[in-house]
Write a structure and sequence with these properties.
3-stranded parallel β-sheet, 10 helices, Rossmann fold, 2 domains, alpha/beta, 6-stranded parallel β-sheet, binds NADP nicotinamide-adenine-dinucleotide phosphate, 11 strands
Length: 290
């Protein structure tokens, strides 16, 4: 039976740590501030934005919400980003994706001041991550690393397989595992013999977006299985990519969905907002865990 990695508990620890840092910064007259921009009426995005605002309250981070109508033009959105770039009380800017059709998401991301890019999606920050000199880490992959550390799982020298190569999860996930000295393979929709490659993994991270994609036959006995997927099953219930029932008896550690990677993403966003405040005030950033 695998041990469950409890993302709720680990995310609460990260938020506690962030809250302590926020208190210390406030003593120095610095109040970390996050602006969350939501365009349109996507109900899932509204829930994410509400959760981010709640996490700001819990950690003591100042937050501003900009809820813009579906009819917002690219120019109006870029103008808002420019205002937020210049605003001294705001250290982090998050534009909730997906944006409504017709808005160019990458142009919006590129308009964000890289020092306020708390999602770490700007090409400057992506490049910094590539060379290993980063101030911000993309929230979901950073959350996975934090979960592995919290469970005492060594990455160095391990065969790590990441399924998925998106810019927001798969690629940065692979890069962070590499920075932690894992031997990393990235699989995607054109990968040949994916089950065999997955079954070589000591650490298997799935970020595909398909329910029950990872089955027992793809998992090595004793592997660590991290499920980034957030899907709905036939009955509409939230589930990951991993067929939990069949994989859990084989794995040594596994993350549940919900309650695994999901809560970590928001906690890491809070951490990035504090890092942004420190960066903009020329203070040393969070220390990496040894
Ligand atoms: P995405 O942009 O759709 O990327 C999915 C990746 O999976 C792509 O690289 C795709 O390959 C690959 N893929 C799709 N079908 C495949 C197949 N049959 N075999 C092998 N690879 C396949 O999705 P994403 O944004 O990375 O998100 C992935 C999942 O993570 C989603 O369920 C999303 O909701 C979830 N997510 C969760 C969090 C969280 O906080 N827990 C955060 C972000 C995302 P190609 O590149 O070849 O098309």
């Amino acid at each position: 039976m695998a041990k469950l990695i409890d993302g709720k508990a680990v995310s609460a620890e990260v938020k506690n740590q962030v809250a302590k840092e926020v208190t210390q910064l406030k003593e120095q007259g610095i109040v970390p501030g996050l602006a969350v921009v939501l365009v349109g009426n996507d109900p899932a995005s509204r829930i994410y934005v509400n959760n981010k605002k709640k996490a700001c309250e819990v950690t003591g981070i100042y937050s501003e919400e900009y809820a813009l109508p579906e009819s917002t033009t690219q120019q109006e959105l870029l103008d808002l980003i420019r205002q937020l770039n210049a605003k001294k009380t705001i250290h982090g800017i998050l534009v909730q994706s997906p944006l409504p059709n017709g808005l160019d998401e990458s142009a919006v991301v590129e308009a964000i001041d890289p020092q306020k890019d708390v999602d770490a999606f700007h090409a400057y920050n992506v490049g910094k991550i590539m060379i290993g000199e980063y101030a911000f880490l993309p929230c979901t992959p950073a959350g996975v690393i934090e979960l592995l550390h919290s469970a005492g799982i060594e990455i160095e020298g391990k065969n790590c397989v990441v399924i998925g190569r998106s810019n927001i999860v798969g690629k940065p996930m692979a890069m962070l595992l590499l920075h932690h000295n894992g031997t990393v393979t990235i699989c995607h929709s054109r990968t040949k013999d994916l089950p065999r490659i997955c079954s070589t993994a000591d650490i298997l991270v799935s970020a595909v977006g398909k329910a029950n994609f990872v089955t027992a036959g793809m998992v090595k006995e004793g592997a660590v299985v991290i499920d980034v997927g957030m899907n709905r099953d036939a009955s509409g219930k939230l589930c990951g990519d991993v067929d939990f029932t069949s994989v859990e008896p084989i794995a040594s550690y596994i993350t549940p969905v919900p309650g695994g990677v999901g809560p970590m993403t928001i906690a890491m966003l809070m951490k990035n907002t504090v890092s942004a405040a420190k960066l903009q005030n020329k203070l040393p950033l969070f220390q990496e865990r040894p």
